[in-house]
Design brief:
The protein is an alpha/beta fold. It has 10 helices and 12 strands. The chain has 2 domains: 214 residues, no CATH class; 95 residues, 2-Layer Sandwich (Transcription Regulator spoIIAA), CATH 3.30.750.210. The strands form 4 sheets. A 6-stranded mixed sheet has the order 2-1-3-4-5-6, with helices on one face. The protein has a two-stranded antiparallel sheet with strand order 7-8.
């Protein structure tokens, strides 16, 4: 491995950890973490969450992608979170890059850095993480050797505030499209000679929006700017959809945080979308249509996750859990197991 591909030396990082309030945010090594040999895989993926560790470790979406991607022996997926100001100060003081928790790989050494955007307040943290990871902020300044910077999640449906900083956005459910992106990257990366050719290769993947090939134009009767595509590209991007929801399994276990997270319990996603379809609700539109898991699958995920993580509490996740058709039966089936813990 080159110097850029190696993980940062633990001895050097330990000196920094001693200077911060909660070193547990940065050391990794949690129960159920998945740590692979970087030399044994074809591609390295950073699953970056632009918030502090306690919030990021509560996010079920990252746990699902982390579990699915690492099931492939050719893929290494590791977690990266935004540092608290005290650790950011240490990284800048010692001129060290932001790194992943598992192998301490610098952010700029991954082939793909994928950000999860849950709300617009994540945007500035994302830019700060790029700078701390020593990745050029703007795609025009990135070389072919730099990582692809992609973003998904609910806030990605409003991409334009970050369009000048992200190589491409992914709209909708990520469980299938992430593997398509990885496959395309491995196919074309050895053949392309510049970054534009690399970005162009992702245009035909459903759900992918590449801002480089769209230009914001003024409208005659409005002050708003509207992105217009280059010739031959669609004006609208269709979102990706997992249907039925049981088509892709959820995470059966997850890394147990070193320090208490915001949602300190095992989580099972029982449904996506909402059957109420209230006109004022953005989430119902983003996750439409309503889909739910079978009662058998929900109970399996609950039993398995509780046993493998050691959590004593369980949470069902959905926009409207009360509308889940197997809620009552699942609770009845799980209560005896939960009461014994």
């Amino acid at each position: 491995m080159t110097a850029r591909q190696k993980g940062l030396p633990i001895e050097q990082l330990e000196l920094l950890w001693r200077q911060v309030q909660k070193p547990g945010r940065y050391i990794g090594g949690e129960s159920n973490q998945i740590k692979k040999d970087p030399q044994s895989v074809k591609i390295k993926i950073a699953l970056a969450f632009p918030e502090v560790y306690e919030l990021g470790m509560s996010y079920l979406g990252q746990k699902i992608l982390y579990s699915l991607l690492n099931q492939s022996p050719d893929i290494l997926a590791e977690r990266v979170y935004a540092p608290w100001p005290d650790f950011e100060l240490q990284l800048r003081k010692h001129q060290l890059p932001l790194y992943s928790l598992e192998n301490k790989i610098p952010l700029n050494s991954f082939e793909i850095v994928g950000f999860s955007l849950l709300y617009e307040l994540n945007d500035t943290n994302l830019l700060n993480m790029l700078e701390l990871g020593q990745i050029p902020r703007r795609p025009a300044d990135r070389q072919l050797s730099d990582p692809l910077v992609i973003a998904g999640g609910p806030a990605a449906f409003n991409p334009e505030p970050l369009a000048d900083f992200i190589d491409f956005f992914v709209f909708g459910d990520g469980e299938e499209v992430f593997f398509e992106i990885i496959k395309r990257y491995l196919e074309v990366r050895p053949e392309v000679s510049n970054r534009e050719e690399l970005l162009r290769s992702f245009l035909k993947i459903k759900g992918v929006y590449v801002p480089y090939f769209y230009r914001a134009e003024k409208q005659e009767k409005s002050f708003l700017l509207v992105p217009r595509p280059a010739a031959g590209l669609p004006e609208t991007i269709d979102k990706r959809l997992i249907y039925p929801l049981d088509k892709i399994s959820s995470a059966e276990k997850a890394a147990v945080p070193n320090i208490q997270s915001v949602f300190d319990r095992w989580q099972v996603e029982v449904a996506r979308g909402c059957p109420q379809n209230c006109r004022f609700c953005q989430a119902a539109s983003l996750y439409f249509p309503y889909r739910y898991r079978s009662g058998q699958e929900v109970e399996h995920l609950a039993y398995t996750g509780l046993k493998k993580t050691g959590y004593e509490e369980l949470s069902f996740i959905a926009l409207s859990v009360g509308d889940y058709p197997y809620l009552e039966q699942s609770i009845k089936d799980l209560l005896p197991f939960l009461e014994s813990r």
